[in-house]
Amino acid sequence: MSVTVGQPAPHFHLFDSDKQEVDLDSLKGDNVVLLFFPLAFTSVCTKELCSVRDNLAFYNGVNAKVFGISVDSIFSLAKYKEEQKLNFPLLSDFNKEVSTSYGSLYEKFGFGMIGVSKRSAFVIDREGVIRYAEVLDNAGLVPDFNMINETLEGIS
What we know:
Blueprint: E1 13-16, E2 21-23, E3 31-36, H1 43-54, H2 56-61, E4 64-70, H3 74-84, E5 90-92, H4 97-101, E6 105-108, E7 114-117, E8 120-124, E9 130-135, H5 145-155
């Protein structure tokens, strides 16, 4: 399934690295940025998420909640978040259901891994509608943060 701009965001509830449940419906009233990433502790993922960490004031300023999502366990994500001093929640999609519903799942990944989140970015507005969607087939690339930020500025 793929997600397109203008459609309602697929519902989800996942656990974060602090073992707290995050439900998309409870985030209505806030803009939401979902950043799917392949694997914790990898170089491109770390570069991407640390960039968000370093620019979190911008996201706070446009009333946006940022979430990183991968198929890593909550325990791996907790260690990764601690080591990288990430200041936003990391959600575990261990069962791959949310990555699938957002069209963000590699069927085959490196080293024979099956079912790893594709590097993707989605901006969801206060009403739960997708306002930006980018799904990358090349895990070595990062989302277009200029477009993400422009989208957020336009809806805040």
